[in-house]
Amino acid sequence: MFDDEGVDMVLINNFDNALRPPMGWNSWDSYGSSLTEGELMSNAEFMAARLKAFGWDTVVVDIDWYDPTAAAHNYNVGAPLVLDEYGRQMPDTGRFPSAADGHGFASIASRVHELGLKFGLHMMRGIPKLAVERNLPVKDTQYTAKDVADLDHVCVWNPDNYGLNQSHPGAQAWYDAQVDQFAAWGVDFLKMDDMQTPFHDDEIEAYHRAIAKAEHVHGHPISLSLSPGQWNNTTYVDFLRGNAQMWRISDDLWDRWDDVYQQFSRLARWAPLQQTGHWADADMLPLGHIGLRAHVGADRDSRLTHDERRTLLTLWAMGRSPLMVGGDLPTSTPETIAMLANPALREVTAGSTHNREVARERIYAQGYDHPESYRGDLIVWAADAADWADGTVSAHPNGRYAAIFWTGDDDYELEGHVELKALVGLDRANEPWCLTDLFEDVKDGGRSSASDGAGSSTHVASIDGEGRDRVIRGVVPSHGVLWFALDNA
């Protein structure tokens, strides 16, 4: 019989499944709710061939994979969801033909695993309204969908589901049966939506228990990612660590500079709380070819400038956020793929500690007495280099990582504001230090010292001065960043 002791042991093993922040691809930014099997596998195959060596190892099917009427720009009220006899969602075989004859996602998961990757699914909180209308039985119980549904806690933006009444014993059984099927298919990663805004702690705990039971039965770890994260509080951190591997800290993020800018303050709050196995998630990376059939915007390359893309990646890495890219990989530009293949992304997310914002100042062209002359914020992050949790030795033993961001609309020349000792510590200020740029320019697999191929000239930091008076020099581009490692020379 399954008991609480078994739950705890499985969960400890499961958290080892997220020793570093996950890196992967999610279909949402490209395909909304309309992804097909062919599109999924083309992204998986591309990832395995071009990006797996750099840490990218997970592909996730986002929302409404069980809706045969799903389209890019809306959710369909009263959609004829594909359900089994217990009300559990099944893949639409029109879009996922290998799911025919009750096979579900087993074939796709197997093919993804053969590529050396992990397979993930999106799921909504609760039980399908259609299952309640049909009053389908809850598997392995005497209850029905009507018995366990909670009609008072319904998602405000998606019409598919009712909540579950967690005071009813059949509610846990329904989640148990759903997750058991996912585990039988071979699912490695579950993105659970409508869990945190508002914060449904009882539902989160119930899903956590269902995953633990499925792991115990199938011997297969499943990582849990909670979404969305609007108004998410750091006071929940102990609860979140006890129930999930990832949790969102914002609403959906798109290819708008303001969306990226808002994450500075959120990651500044959450970065000091990042812990092996438990990751605050700043949301997907809207990079590359997005909007093919998405819910926001038309078919396009990411509207973020080249330097804004660097800022996005650097901030996520320094904040140790999971990295889930949204662009269609096979049709994204070589420059985008080269940016994702930067080994520093995995290096810093996996091998850094004490990640923190160390300075943030508003800069005025004419001084603080002239607020109308505000130019932007100069923001400095620092972290200690460390060995990875899986035992990989640090690329910068006893070194440091640093990032200098500039949010203004024009380039900003550093004028001695960033002292080296602020990044390496007062106790090590006199030691010899050398600087390595972590955004060496890469174009289609080849390094270029002059240009990144995207209309932005190279910006590199340097150390200037002597002894304890050394400072970081350089020009930070508009909405851009200088990102570097510091080693004791």
TrEMBL record:
<dbReference type="GO" id="GO:0005975">
    <property type="term" value="P:carbohydrate metabolic process"/>
</dbReference>
<dbReference type="InterPro" id="IPR002241">
    <property type="entry name" value="Glyco_hydro_27"/>
</dbReference>
<dbReference type="GO" id="GO:0004557">
    <property type="term" value="F:alpha-galactosidase activity"/>
</dbReference>
<comment type="similarity">
    <text>Belongs to the glycosyl hydrolase 27 family.</text>
</comment>
<keyword id="KW-0378">Hydrolase</keyword>
<dbReference type="InterPro" id="IPR013785">
    <property type="entry name" value="Aldolase_TIM"/>
</dbReference>
<keyword id="KW-0326">Glycosidase</keyword>
<protein>
    <recommendedName>
        <fullName>Alpha-galactosidase</fullName>
        <ecNumber>3.2.1.22</ecNumber>
    </recommendedName>
</protein>
<keyword id="KW-1015">Disulfide bond</keyword>
<dbReference type="InterPro" id="IPR017853">
    <property type="entry name" value="GH"/>
</dbReference>
<dbReference type="Pfam" id="PF16499">
    <property type="entry name" value="Melibiase_2"/>
</dbReference>
